[in-house]
Design a protein that fits this description.
The chain contains 17 helices and 26 strands. The protein is α/β, with parallel strands linked by helices and 666 residues long. It has 3 domains: 2-69 and 110-145 and 210-375, TIM Barrel; 386-594, 3-Layer(aba) Sandwich (Rossmann fold); 610-665, Sandwich (Immunoglobulin-like), CATH 2.60.40. The mean pLDDT is 95. Bound molecules: zinc ion.
Length: 666
């Protein structure tokens, strides 16, 4: 399951070391266009032929990349239209980029699309029947955004298709404001930040246009090798691309994860929670299907401000963390450190020296031996009963809004706050798009779901009526899909199921605090006083029961948490943000007990910084227990289970070393 990404140099020695490291697959060809096509129409596949032949002899699987992530100099010089254009500043006309860097081609250029299709067809024809070919790795870490005349024209066509006519567009975008009403399609540019609805449509277009480019460059692969799966390496919660839409067009979800485990001011446990969330997101993109950790580093990266060494054991810990959350492999960038270029100091399986005696190599080889024992876990799913709605379009919209508060707009931090309450208890969580079905979950949480899609509230009502628990927060249910604020009272169409009306909202400075005071006899035995920060929604309970009230300011005594009994279920509204994890931890902890949510490891209390994740097949249930702390912890197991990694029984009191992990067979 251990996979590397490698280059053409030192191949004989590299393949010897690949075998020693227990590596069974390699991704090749990324950024290799200037080698594959050194001059226009002149192709040289020699190094790929060589690697494919060696891989076949070594019984390795090759994930063969298409080279579009970086365009060759001769092409950028001859066809300037393939280079992106960007506005260098507010209200300034776009300029053409110089040829440099990577990930900067225009997604619309017919020339670049044609060049990609030619070389991809040649790769598919040459290697489509090769026994070592396992999967296509199309391009690399797609980004988005170009403001050239071709993209401008494509944006206008995209808008015309969406709105049908300018009347509908003017209404949806509220263009009468500041006299921006459009009377001709040619008046619509790409850079006007004063129309938030336009900014969001631009983001939709940018994501869609790059997706369209990906589909165009994949077309020859689909046609010539219909049975070879396709992946693109994604980047977690990367804002510019709506991965929910992308995932429908890839066969295997893969992503690149580089947790530093030393970021300041983050703690190792905070970093762990953030990356577990992103792993769960990748698993959720295709409805729970296992994903692939396409890129990671056995050592430090070179692109952070400070690139500290991973402590011994942390590489193993973060690799098993990915598998715990649904990855069916552990892959690395890169096999061998290059001697030059801007990633020459980036961690790799093999150092510049080429020795097997380096710590990174030894740790990769040791992990390779352990991963071989995890065969029964391949293909296993995660039985989540809790879901968090994480909608890219809603993120874009809140992000594009002028105001209301810099602190309150961080939707990712808000989602993570809710996520951590379950993650630390070992209760599995799925992520959902705003258009997803809610059936099958016990608890659905919508943190800062600013934009509500058509039909979302109706689905929530059916979910709650049938016995589900829905949790919404401040800044949920503000606007429709074109960023028009709901006029029937907030939280818009969710007002009925939540049984409240948001009257006005107070945004606090960083150093200000309010209090959330649980009422005596509150449901689920909620009790205590919790500091609130950043945002306090001033709410009127309509049909909802008041569970907690504010402790300070002119709205003291007003509802801070409510619950509405609706059909067989409940809809909760958390009106304030906690100043730390205390409020959400208490709330979701009580909810988990009340709803009897199943923990991955029910017979063992998890110390802070230790998590348990579960993956199961038809025949097996596997519990990954990982200690993210810098110190050992003692766990007390009531049940005896076998650790797949060592084959030994685990029961009673067990010391888990710093960064230690167990994979228990239940
Ligand atoms: Zn363009």
């Amino acid at each position: 399951m251990s996979i590397v990404r490698c280059g053409p140099e030192n191949l004989g020695h590299d393949f010897h070391q690949i075998k020693l490291a227990g590596i069974n697959s390699a991704s090749i060809g990324i950024f290799s266009w200037s080698a594959l096509e050194p001059e226009e129409g002149v192709f040289d596949f020699g190094f790929v032929d060589d690697i494919m032949a060696r891989a076949k002899r070594a019984k390795m699987a090759i994930i063969l990349a298409t080279p579009s992530g970086a365009k060759p100099n001769w092409m950028a010089q001859k066809y300037p239209e393939i280079r992106r254009m960007h506005s260098p500043g507010r209200n300034v006309a776009p300029l053409r980029e110089e040829q440099c860097g990577r990930h900067n081609h225009c997604p619309t250029s017919p020339v670049y699309r044609e060049k990609c299709q030619i070389i991809n067809a040649k790769l598919a024809e040459r290697y489509g029947g090769h026994p070592a070919l396992a999967m296509w790795h199309v391009s690399n870490e797609y980004g988005a955004g170009c403001e050239c005349p071709l993209c401008q024209a494509a944006f206008r066509q995209w808008l015309e298709k969406k709105y049908g006519g300018l009347k509908a567009l003017n209404e949806a975008w509220w263009t009468g404001f500041w006299a921006h009403r459009f009377t001709d399609w040619s008046q619509i540019g790409m850079t006007d930040g004063s129309l938030p609805a336009m900014v969001v449509d631009r983001r939709r277009f940018d994501s869609d246009q790059m997706l369209d480019f990906f589909r165009a460059e994949s077309a020859p692969l689909r046609a010539i090798t219909p049975d070879v799966p396709i992946t693109v390496n994604m980047m977690g919660t990367y804002l510019p691309l709506d991965y929910w839409r992308w995932a429908k067009h890839v066969d295997v979800v893969s992503w690149d994860a580089y947790p530093a485990y030393h970021d300041r001011p983050e703690t190792a446990v905070t970093t762990a929670g953030r990356f577990s969330f992103a792993h769960d997101l990748n698993r959720s993109l295709k409805g729970g299907k296992p994903f692939l950790l396409m890129e990671s580093s056995p050592g430090p990266t070179n692109w952070m401000q400070i690139n500290r060494l991973l402590r011994p054991g942390q590489h193993r810990m973060k690799s098993l963390q990915a598998v715990a959350h649904g990855s069916d492999g552990v892959c690395y960038f890169q096999l061998r450190k290059g001697r030059g270029g801007c990633e020459k100091f980036h961690g790799a399986v093999i150092d510049h020296v080429g020795s097997e005696d380096d710590r990174m190599f030894r740790e990769v080889a040791a992990l390779g031996r352990e991963l071989k024992r995890l065969g029964p876990v391949l293909g296993a799913r995660t039985p989540a009963k809790v879901a968090i709605v994480f909608d890219w379009e809603s993120r874009w919209m809140l992000n594009a809004a002028n105001g209301p508060s810099a602190f309150a707009k961080d939707t990712d931090a808000a989602a993570l706050g809710h996520y951590r309450a379950y993650w630390k208890r070992g209760i599995p969580v799925d992520l959902l798009n705003g258009d997803a079905k809610l059936d099958g979950y016990d608890v659905v949480i919508a943190p800062q779901l600013y934009m509500l899609r058509e039909g979302f509230a109706a689905r929530v009502e059916r979910f709650v009526e049938k016995g589900g628990t829905f949790v919404a927060t401040y800044l949920t249910g503000i606007a429709n899909e074109t960023d028009l604020v709901f006029s029937g009272g907030l939280p818009g169409p969710l007002r009925n199921v939540l049984g409240i009306r948001s009257m006005e909202t107070d945004y606090l400075y960083d150093d200000e605090r309010n209090e959330v005071v649980m009422r005596p006899g509150a449901p689920m035995a909620l009790a205590g006083v919790y500091p609130a920060a950043y945002v306090c929604d001033v709410v009127r309970a309509e049909t909802a029961e008041v569970v907690a009230t504010y402790g300070r300011d002119f709205y003291a005594g007003g509802p801070a948490i409510t619950v509405n009994h609706f059909g067989k279920g409940e809809a909760w509204y958390v009106a304030a943000a906690g100043a730390d994890d205390g409020l959400l931890d208490a709330f979701h902890g009580a909810l988990a007990r009340a709803r009897k949510l199943k923990r991955a490891l029910p017979d063992c209390d998890l110390p802070a910084g230790v998590t348990a994740q579960v993956r199961q097949t038809k025949t097996g249930r596997f519990i990954f227990v990982i200690n993210f702390n810098n110190d050992p912890v003692v766990l007390a197991f009531k049940k005896t289970r076998r650790d797949l990694l060592t084959g030994r029984a685990v029961s009673g009191r067990k010391t888990l070393p710093a960064y230690g992990a167990l994979v228990l067979e239940d």
